[in-house]
Amino acid sequence: MDKFYTYIGNDGFGSQYQKIVETYIHCKKNHMQFAYTPLNIVEHNYDNDIEYNNKLENLMNLKNNIINVDKIVADVERLDYIRNKIKNYFGENIDDYCESQHMDFIKNCFWQNKNRNYFDNNKLNIAVHIRRENAHDILFGGAGPRATTPNSYYLKIMNSIREKYNHNGNNKELLFHIYSQGDITQFEELVSDDVKFYLNYDIIESFIGMVSADVFIMSPSSLSYVAAMISDGEVYYKKFWHNPRKNWIVSG
């Protein structure tokens, strides 16, 4: 009887989406049949929205495009992201995996039910994700260095982008979209006429904005990382424990 494989994950949305994508591609590249496990427990549902999981399923749009585990009568093995070395395999082969037809499938599923012209403003749109501590982090002991990258790091990249695109014949106005959590007083040095803030904003709209942007400035987080993998824009990568693609701009 055929055997199928799926992922294990109870975490925030970014972490679970990353594990799903990486496990799916790893299975496909190694001729292993993958079955999709719908989301169960997803952290950071601050408003206790009973439709939270369904909205995230609609965002990924994989549930209706990959056979689900509850439809499988064959044996299903649940692969642990660390113990089964999915993280290692993907990191070591990230460019091969991300340039595969299987990543194209992930992207096509994502865009299948969305408008690619998300911002619809005829500007050069730059998304900036700034990972800051949230209620879950505070409750369970903090997020550590992931959430302490100073605003000056992001400002330096933003200024380099301003310099780059204002002097290369670009005829579009620049507009920075900053996605984060907290209060505007925590981001005062980033305030500018060409900046819009989305603080404590809807995760669905935030994620689509990150993926849709012409340029994406990552933070060291899984939410940023999986958005960057799906993005077709220019990506500025912040070093942390997941490897960058060769075409990403490593910025510290």
- State which percent range the strand residues make up: 15-25%
Low-confidence stretches: 137-143
The major beta sheet can be summarized as: 6 strands, parallel
Number of strands: 9
Strand order, sheet with most strands = 6-5-4-7-8-9
Q: Which helices and strands occur, and which strands form pairs?
A:
Elements: E1 3-7, H1 13-29, E2 33-34, H2 52-60, E3 75-79, H3 86-92, H4 94-98, H5 101-111, E4 124-129, H6 135-139, H7 151-165, E5 174-180, E6 195-199, H8 203-212, E7 215-217, H9 222-230, E8 234-237, E9 249-250
Parallel strand pairs: 1-2, 1-3, 4-5, 4-7, 5-6, 7-8, 8-9
Helix pairs in contact: 1-3, 1-9, 8-9
Explained architecture:
There is one protein chain. This protein is α/β, with parallel strands linked by helices. The protein folds into two domains: 3-111, no CATH class; 124-250, Rossmann fold. It contains nine helices and nine strands. The strands form two sheets. The chain has a six-stranded parallel β-sheet, sandwiched between helices. Helix 1 crosses helix 3 (86-92), helix 1 (13-29) crosses helix 9 and helix 8 packs across helix 9. The longest helix has 17 residues, at 13-29. The radius of gyration is 19 Å and the shape is globular. It starts with a strand and ends with a strand. Mean pLDDT is 89; it is low at 137-143.
